[in-house]
Write a structure and sequence with these properties.
With 290 residues, this protein is an alpha/beta fold. Helix content is 42%, strand content 17%. α6 crosses α7.
Length: 290
């Protein structure tokens, strides 16, 4: 294959899921215009998750790190994996985001999981935690990090001075302390720090039940959500077929489609490649802007 700029590595995910069939479509549709490299296994075992398949998925992740370090790839797009099955073969990370943070010597609290879609862009202050732990462990520094990473990513995508909204934690953003104190104790100090240390426009704490619609309508360029489902429910509702999971804060570019393994759909030709295609195209753009 004639190389056309930076090489994007593609891991195919769990062989029992939809990842392999979607990855093949990605190579067929984009392989002539982009430099793509298959990372790890290429077999499919539709709808039949197994320890052997989970090991292949795990090995593909390790292989991608080796290729990054050798300079053979400049970005990676990960096919969907099963956290349950990976756990059964010794994968000790909540997700692929945390795996790459560890691999490149970055603290888990210094990376940000983002969902970048055509209608909504969301960053998360926390990721794969129970709701109880996410709420009790919420700190201003997490919000600052998520806001900064979201703004930097938006700037790489051409938004010169991003307009960022920060969600409140409680109903109606606490109603000035009536429904909770977290906005005053945690969220507002974070917003003040972001305003002091950046030149992008930031507002909040915004009522979580309305801010995503306001962003969808164009009032904001991105939203900082305070926990996993607060951000991912609206992102997947609006942009499920085209949203891309981006890990910010790494020294490398890492993206993935926003969907899971979908074992029940594997091998039936029903899964759509849109999110996978968008992930590869976005990874290429982010490499060019690094």
């Amino acid at each position: 294959m004639k190389k056309k700029g930076a090489v994007v590595g593609v891991t195919w995910g769990d062989p029992a899921g939809v990842g392999p069939e979607l990855a093949r479509q990605v190579f067929k549709k984009l392989g002539r215009s982009l430099s793509l490299r298959q990372v790890g296994h290429s077999e499919s075992r539709p709808g039949k998750p197994s320890l052997a398949g989970a090991r292949l998925a795990k090995e593909s992740l390790a292989e991608s790190v080796r290729l990054f370090r050798s300079g053979e790839i400049q970005a990676v797009v990960n096919g969907p994996v099963s956290k349950e099955w990976l756990g059964k073969v010794g994968f000790r990370f909540p997700g692929q985001t945390e795996f790459y943070a560890k691999a490149f010597g970055v603290k888990p609290d210094d990376v940000t999981m983002m969902m970048i879609g055509p209608r909504l862009r969301v960053s998360l202050a926390s990721t794969h935690l129970s709701l109880r732990k996410a709420v009790l462990g919420l700190r201003s520094k997490q919000i600052v990090r998520a806001g900064r990473h979201l703004a930097e990513t938006l700037q790489k995508l051409g938004v010169r001075r991003p307009r960022i909204a920060v969600c409140g934690l409680n109903p109606h953003a606490g109603e000035n302390g009536r429904f909770g104190k977290e906005e005053k104790r945690v969220v507002e100090p974070a917003i003040r720090e972001l305003k002091r240390k950046s030149d992008f426009r930031i507002s909040g704490p915004e009522s979580p039940d309305a801010v995503f619609r306001r962003a969808w309508k164009g009032e904001f360029d991105g939203v900082v959500a305070l926990y996993h489902d607060q951000g991912l429910i609206p992102a997947k509702l609006l942009d499920f077929d085209e949203t891309v999971n981006v890990t910010a804060g790494l020294p490398v570019v890492r993206c993935s489609p926003d969907h899971g393994t979908a074992f029940a759909l594997a091998g039936k030709g029903k899964a759509r490649p849109d999110s996978f295609l968008a992930a590869v195209q976005l990874a290429k753009r982010l490499v060019a802007r690094k």
